[in-house]
Design goal:
This is Tannase/feruloyl esterase family alpha/beta hydrolase. The chain is an alpha/beta fold. It contains 15 helices and 16 strands. The protein has a ten-stranded mixed sheet, with helices on both faces. The chain has a two-stranded antiparallel sheet with strand order 9-10. Strands 13-14 form a two-stranded antiparallel sheet.
Length: 517
């Protein structure tokens, strides 16, 4: 009797459940109960302690939404022996991956890209395989693995591991992948297009230090000129030089506004500032030793042996006196060139990468004494190959960008690379479908300066890759310290520049037209 009662109760319960769920009499038509999706915090926590794609995840944490950046999971991981990276995985993912490149000698974790995360991208950055101050290179003294990772290997290694992490977290790989970097990150960007053309669908290379070895050899040459008797610059002399360039060239873009936007038309001759007799007579002129510094800085540089090209000279911009222009990069604080950023970089390369001698006086170093060492390091570090056939063949897209007031890396060098790449592609008509160059007047290294330094290149690249909409002339902006826009200008496709129309607000892009030089 009890068994009959239990059976009746079970049948009643099943019947009631079917009634509430609108069951049919055919068991095959019963839809399976949906599996609830775990909350983002749990999915994030579940990654901790796992080894995925060769990377061991040591920790994860949910980062709360802030401003335009949505909630994301920060994944801290390591690939042996010491390649550290962080993947930032949005709780609401757009299905795409963004790699944020490094800077200097790397060694520090690349910070999250607020721009990429705000658009829903998964974002990743690394330390490139060593932990150090990005302005020092002592880690390269006796660690070839770290040097190779820094040179080219870290980015594809981290990218491949991150793709596997995406599959675990989201159940799928990225639909599209992009790389974006400035300075050394710009070199990494071009390295990917050249050596790993299948790694990324689109690449943004800002102010690329693509000729890393030659660039730092140019730093060394200018350091010697500044260290020569009478070569150092006071702040007054830097101001004299910058002011003379602005006076001669600023208005050639249609308006004298403190930004030389048509540098191709600037023919200023520094020799006009020569002190009487060539000796230093004050801040209103330049001595012969100081003119030699300008000569070193503005001219191309090659090894005398085999005519091996090293670096393209800088253009005089008229904004050399900006805080983050010559005073930071070239002449140093209070006229002491040994405090400049360029001096520190050349010190690191010459001592720890080229000569493996921590005590070497780099001001006595001659790259022509051992050209083989320079060329060998160049073959490892530099991304100078203009042949992009494989990248182009798989519909890759590449955007180059450079500020014209960059005192770290010559924008002329980026123009040189662009021109070589266009020629290698068989001309402009063949290059245009995959390659664009933008020059930003008055903009310092990667950002800053009096020019409009902010532009959404990632959105332009994404549209180009996903819809085939090639970027044309863009609009760049500049904000004050509170984030309020104070300036907008056209960001013109090379070789055009923004020319003032002759009337209207000089701070509004609508009153400028992209014009052929």
């Amino acid at each position: 009797m009890k068994a009959i009662v239990r059976s009746a109760r079970a049948g009643w319960a099943i019947g009631l459940a079917c009634l509430l769920a609108a069951c049919s009499g055919d068991d095959d038509n019963v839809p399976p109960a949906p599996t609830p999706t775990p909350p983002a915090a749990q999915l994030c926590a579940d990654l901790a302690g796992k080894t995925i794609g060769g990377a061991t995840i040591s920790a994860t944490n949910i980062v709360a939404a802030a401003g335009t950046v949505p909630e994301y999971c920060n994944v801290i991981a390591k690939i042996p022996p010491k390649l550290n990276f962080e993947a930032r995985l949005p709780s609401q993912w757009n299905g795409k991956l963004h790699y944020n490149g490094g800077g200097g000698f790397n060694g520090m974790m690349t910070p999250p890209s607020a721009d990429a995360l705000s658009k829903g991208f998964a974002d990743v950055g690394s330390d490139s395989g060593h932990s150090a101050d990005p302005f020092t290179a002592n880690w390269a003294l006796d660690d070839q693995t770290a040097l190779v990772n820094f040179a080219f290997a870290s980015v594809p290694t981290v990218t491949n591991a991150t793709r596997e992490i995406l599959k675990v977290r989201y159940g799928k790989d990225a639909d599209r992948s992009y790389f974006e970097g400035c300075s050394n990150g710009g070199r990494e960007a071009l390295m990917m297009a050249q050596r790993y053309p299948a790694q990324f669908d689109g690449i943004i290379s800002r102010a690329p230090a693509y000729n890393f070895t030659g660039l730092l050899m140019a730093f060394n040459r200018t350091a010697k000129a500044l260290a020569a008797p009478g070569g150092a610059f006071t702040s007054g002399k830097v101001a004299t030089l910058a002011g003379a360039v602005r006076t001669a060239c600023d208005a050639q873009d249609g308006v004298a506004d403190g930004v030389v936007s048509n540098p191709q038309a600037c023919t200023f001759n520094p020799a006009t500032l020569r002190c009487a007799g060539g000796t230093d007579t004050g801040d209103s002129c330049l001595s012969d030793a100081q003119l030699a510094v300008v000569q070193s800085w503005t001219t191309d540089f090659s090894l005398s042996s085999g005519n091996f090209f090293l670096n393209t000279g800088w253009a005089l911009s008229g904004n050399e006196d900006g805080l983050f222009a010559w005073p930071a990069w070239v002449t140093g604080a209070n006229g002491d060139p040994s405090t400049s950023v360029q001096f520190g970089f050349q010190l690191g390369m010459v001592r720890f990468m080229l000569n493996k001698d921590p005590a070497l006086n780099t001001l006595t170093y001659d790259p022509n004494a051992n050209p083989g060492a320079v060329m060998s390091l160049s073959a490892l570090l530099d991304a100078t190959d203009p042949e992009l056939t494989s990248f182009r063949a798989r519909s890759g897209k590449l955007i180059l960008w450079h500020g014209e007031n960059d005192s770290a890396i010559s924008y002329r060098g980026t123009v040189r690379y662009y021109t070589q790449a266009v020629n290698a592609a068989g001309g402009q008509a063949n290059a245009d479908p995959f390659l664009k160059l933008y020059l930003a007047p008055g903009v310092d290294h990667c950002a800053g300066g009096p020019g409009a330094d902010t532009v959404d290149l990632l959105a332009a690249l994404d549209a180009w890759v996903t819809t085939g909409t090639a970027p044309g002339d863009l609009t760049a902006t500049k904000a004050d310290e509170n984030g309020n826009p104070v300036l907008s200008r056209p960001l013109c496709r090379y070789p055009n520049y923004p020319r003032y129309n002759g009337s209207g607000d000089v701070n509004a892009a609508s009153n400028f037209t992209c014009t052929a030089p």
